[in-house]
Amino acid sequence: MRFSTLALLTSALTACTTSAATTWNDYLQENVLASRQAFETKLTQCTEGQPPLKKIEAPWFAKLSNAEKYAAAVYLNTLLTRRCVGETEGTYSRDLFAYAAEFGKNDNFTAWEDYQRVYRADDTLFETLNVQPVLDYFDANTELNSFKILPFLEQYQNPFYIE
């Protein structure tokens, strides 16, 4: 009796795992889809409905040109967004990289590469800006959230323009 019960249990377990079998490709794709959904949900929570960022009164920011203020605001907002999405960004990166490494780059991987780059309207300006004061401000203000850049910059000049 014990043997037949054990055989029946083993047979049932084998049937369950066989029917749930998946390919490596399917497994990696499911991970990518699940982590992408979690990341997009978190990103929406981080970027929608946030209060405007108050004017930065620090001397280092005040003495920047309009173009430099724009670049600093872009960097700061990128840092704040990445802090907010946190682990979901890392999980999606890992899952997407694993899939791309196994099966080659795809449209999702290319779009992710584009997302990871900080948007630069003028590469030369972004290459020369000293970002240390931005990093120090970011580290000192842990309560800040991502923000809409144009309303923030309009606190300095309305309408805000870049020379």
Secondary structure elements and pairings:
Layout: H1 2-19, H2 24-47, H3 59-62, H4 66-103, H5 107-116, H6 123-128, H7 132-140, H8 149-153
Helix pairs in contact: 2-4, 4-7
Structural commentary:
- Keywords: Signal.
- Residues 1-20 form the signal peptide.
- The protein is mainly alpha-helical.
- The protein has one domain (22-153).
- 70% of the residues lie in helices and 0% in strands.
- It contains eight helices and no strands.
- α2 (24-47) packs antiparallel against α4 and α4 crosses α7 (132-140).
- The protein is elongated, with a radius of gyration of 24 Å.
- The model is unreliable at 1-19 (pLDDT under 50).
List keywords for this structure.
mainly alpha; 163 residues; elongated
